[in-house]
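This week, look over our next protein:
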Amino acid sequence: MASGEGRYKAKGSSTLGQVPFLNAAGASSAQEEQAQLCEQLQKQQVCCQHQAHPMASALREPEAAAVATGTGSECGCGETQRALQEAIDKLQRGFIDIVKENADLKERVEKLELGFIQLSGERDMIRKSIKPNDRQRAVAKTQHQKKNDVSMRSEAEEGMRGRCTTSLQG
């Protein structure tokens, strides 16, 4: 028995009607969070691409990068190299941070998907447990109806016997 099933059964049948609502609310908030995470992931990927572009051009054209960073040919080659190396290091750190955050977001999305699966399983188990209860109620109702029918027939027979006895005596 899943922990969710026991929890719902312990509260009573009035709570069972609320379960689909609770599952729907949990699923919608999880879906919203998943959508936000996917959007954030896409933004980070775009940011990563923007950061990688200057680094690639700096590696291809070091002199153009030196002019772009404000170091001209009048500066020594060492300063240009240092500035380029600092820019590359900064971009690499940013890239590594984004890759780590991307992995964290993917892990979080996987956890949300697992939560969806678990909620779906619990919902299905609750539905299966409700169906036998409905059948049991239907059987009990028909049995009660049969008892009422027998009782009404007995009363009708008693009434007819009484009338027959009265008409025979009279």
User: Anything to note?
Assistant: The radius of gyration is 38 Å. Confidence is low (pLDDT under 50) at residues 1-22, 71-75. The chain is about 90% helix and 0% strand. The chain has one domain: 3-138.
